[in-house]
Amino acid sequence: MNAYVSRVIEAVKAKYSHEPEFVQTVEEVLSSVAPMIDQHPEYEKADLLTRMVEPERMFTFRVVWTDDQGQTHTNTGYRCQFNGAIGPYKGGLRFQPNVNPSIIKFLGFEQTFKNSLTGLPMGGAKGGSDFDPTGRSDAEIMRFCQSFMTALYRYIGPDVDVPAGDMGVGGREIGYLFGQYRRLKGVWENGVLTGKGLSYGGSLNRPEATGYGAVYYLLEVLKHEGETIDGKTIAISGFGNVAWGICKKAMQLGAKVVTLSGPDGYIYDPDGVSSSEEKVNYMLEMRNSGRNRVQDYADKFGVQFYPGEKPWGVKADIIMPAAMQNDVNMEQAKRIAANGVKYYIEVANMPTTNDALYFLMEQPNMIVAPSKAVNAGGVGVSGLEMSQNSERLVWTAEEVDEQLHKMMINIHKVSAEAAEAYGLGYNLVAGANLAGFQKVATAMMEQGTF
Ligand code: 2IT
Predict the structure, then answer these.
(1) What sign has the CA pseudo-torsion 16, 21, 22, 28?
(2) Are 189 and 157 in contact (CB under 8 A)?
(3) Is 382 in the pocket of ligand 1 (CB under 6 A)?
(4) Which one of 120, 164, 257, 329 counts the least CB within 10 Å of its CB?
């Protein structure tokens, strides 16, 4: 591998041994772009890679809130404004007890290249808190969001940094965050957040966008292989917003999603979660209940529930991990390969450990698609929401869907072409990294060293 790339990876490993997820994504991205670094000796002279792995700005803040019993709680808030070379910082907020600097940094780093792949002018960012929303009342969620925004509002803005949702942050939380921003700033800048409600500047199809985009990307992969989606079985993990969007689009296209998972285990529905609107809509109810349990689905529809297990032993045509980081490790990857799965389509951010990812990529009959391309439709439609807000108008659902579909076709195309250009064949993982990296690198080089 390119000596400069190796040196930067080693330096990151040594400096951030306490941030394993961040080290993992740096290794994955930088090793993919090594062939490009070979061709650009000027990048080393400008120390581009070391600059690229150092967030432009990252800060923590105290978030204090009071529960319904009058007890005060204190959480840590984070925002990592990783790279602003190609546009205002853009990326979600995650509320989950395991949130820490490593998770926020890995997500911000991934976001930088993902946002670049959308073709829209958005830099990379991520934030959130180690707050656990499970079982919290609506009033508690509101007070938490108000306190969070009170600390964050000075550092964001429609042309500065535009947060959105991620795990634990959906339309309800974005509403409370926006209300507090408006109250504190005394301006009506709805471009400051995306994923908003339709009554105050949200985009049609934003809730569906990540799942729909993932399926549109899958369609391109299937087309490349001369296959169609009709009648295919899909095993997914997760049961949140992204899983819901996949099921909804799968239902329209005649594919069968047979599994969902949660922290409590997974469910197997042989008829398909995507077989009825009632089932797909029930996913929203499960999410809104705040119980964070997928067993409720099995209880309601009389299907099998497997406590404490992941769905990766299930035989399906397509695997789409849509839950969280490192959901598929080496042992589970071996089960997936042994089942003869042909399509491994990552959806959640970094859902595969690096050893498992490389193992799956080496399987002769398997096609692996990387999350930073597959899930880019979510932030892509956030970008379209920003456009609508600055134009002060609302696009129809059809217009948004058409733009999203075009965007996903293009992301697949530029990824495949980038891999081809470096002699790597149909390597969508390397292709996405190469294509996403190139634009950020060019912008940084042209803007001078800082
Ligand atoms: O991981 C992601 O791309 C998101 N959570 C969405 C970010 C956004 O700004 O819409």
Answers:
(1) positive
(2) yes
(3) yes
(4) 329
Tell me the three state secondary structure of residue 305.
strand
Going from the Cα of 117 to the center of ligand 1, the distance in angstroms, rounded, reads 13
Distances (CA, A) of 115 to 53, 336, 394, 422: 16, 29, 22, 22
Residue 381 carries which side chain, given as an amino acid letter?
V
DSSP string, 208-233: HHHHHHHHHHHHHHHHHTT---TT-E
CB 381 near ligand 1, within 6 Å: no
Q: Where are the alpha helices (DSSP H) in 186-293?
A: 206-224, 241-253, 277-288
The position carrying tokens 């399926």 is: 215
pTM for this prediction: 0.98
Indicate if ligand 1 lies below 6 Å from the C-beta of 207.
Answer: no
Contact assessment for residue 101 and residue 173, using Cβ atoms and an 8 Å cutoff: no
The CA 226 to ligand 1 mean position distance, Å, reads 31
Q: Using the CB atoms, write b or e for 16-55: b if 16+ within 10 Å.
A: beebebbbbbbbbbbbbbbbbbeebeebbeeebbebbbeb
